[in-house]
Design a protein that fits this description.
The protein has 352 residues and is mainly alpha-helical. The protein is built from 15 helices and one strand; from the N terminus they run αααααααααααααβαα.
């Protein structure tokens, strides 16, 4: 483990340890200062923050954040009925709160599973309606941030158990189980996600009995789940292989069964070792939800296109809209990254 007291000394050595390094540091700091000054001037000094399109058009070298003030609701909630947008707002809060609670190790108890069931029922009930006097909103009108978080959270929650089975199956000594697990993982990892979404949206309905077809959102969620599970399986398998085989042999010699050994000894250590890789996969899945736009579902980036694409008044200010959406994604991904660092330290696996 690195000595923290040596941190400032190491920084000075890296940045100013030689004339060439000092020159590179000065040039880099000058470039950052120049870029930061112009960004601040464009984004703050000359920017327009009120939703006044005439003022935005009059500004030559400034941002028009007024487009965010004017269009933030369709950007965040897509085509959901305007007067009912309190429903997806509460749905996002409920699902996010349960997700944050699940990230706290002290809450990893039996009651977490039924809590997730209640949260998902509330999420679907608020979004779809048809209960408690709420009007029905078809999934074709779901969009924005609720769809992004819903697909990512539910897809990962469904993919993780499947990935666990696939990882253990690929390490199995039974040839049939090993072959099937390995074939599935290699097949799914060999195709891009966009092709999986296309097949789930347009090919899968041809295989269902006539007169009964799952909703397009359900099909997309199935495709996303199956795709993510293949990648998570390889991450988990790497963790399983990192656990010394001697621990399994000793535990079985002491009378433990095969499954108790995996559940109580191998899996806790394996999952602890792959926290950074799992976080990376979670971040990638969150951003990959933007691909569902190609099959007619408008998540956060798709909602931005709907909000500005059909409005000729605010259409010229796409850059500011994309920066707003990018900021939302960055906040979500940065939060996941910091949680990963905190969890590593709590579990005692951090090398920092």
């Amino acid at each position: 483990m690195r000595n923290v007291a040596q941190g400032p000394i190491a920084w000075r050595s890296e940045l100013w340890g030689s004339p060439l390094r000092a020159l590179a540091t000065v040039l880099l700091l000058g470039l950052l200062a120049w870029a930061g000054f112009h960004a601040f001037e464009w984004g703050v000094v000359h920017a327009v923050f009120r939703p006044d399109v005439d003022a935005c058009r009059a500004v030559q070298h400034g941002a028009c954040w007024g487009v965010v003030a004017e269009k933030w609701r369709p950007m965040l909630f897509g085509r959901f009925p305007y007067e009912e947008q309190w429903r997806p707002a509460i749905a996002v809060v409920v699902l996010s709160a349960v997700t944050v609670l699940s990230a706290w190790p002290r809450s990893w108890h039996w009651w977490l599973a039924p809590l997730w069931g209640v949260a998902l029922l509330l999420f679907v009930g608020l979004m779809h309606g048809g209960v408690a006097g709420l009007s029905v909103v078809p999934t074709s009108r779901w969009g924005g941030l609720p769809l992004t978080i819903g697909l990512a959270v539910v897809g990962l929650a469904l993919a993780f158990p499947l990935a666990l089975l696939l990882a253990m199956g690929r390490r199995s000594e039974w040839p049939v189980v090993h072959t099937l697990s390995a074939s599935y993982i290699e097949l799914v990892r060999g195709v891009p996600l966009i092709s999986v979404l296309f097949m789930a949206s347009f090919l899968l309905p041809l295989l269902w009995p006539a007169g009964w077809q799952p909703d397009v959102l359900v099909r997309v969620l199935m495709g996303l789940t199956l795709f993510v599970a293949a990648y998570l399986a390889e991450i988990i398998r790497g963790g399983l292989q990192a656990v010394p085989r001697g621990q399994t042999e000793v535990a079985m010699a002491l009378g433990f069964g095969r499954w108790p050994v995996q559940r109580d000894i191998v899996l806790p250590q394996a999952l602890r070792l792959v926290v950074p890789a799992l976080t990376n996969s979670v971040v990638g899945t969150l951003k990959d939800t933007s691909l569902v736009t190609v099959v007619g579902l408008f998540e956060l980036t798709g909602a931005l296109g709907l909000a500005l694409g059909g409005d000729p008044v605010w259409r010229p200010f796409y850059l500011e809209g994309y920066l707003f959406v990018a900021a939302v994604y960055w906040l979500l991904c940065f939060g996941l990254s910091r949680y990963s660092v905190w969890l590593e330290r709590r579990l005692g696996t951090s090398s920092a």
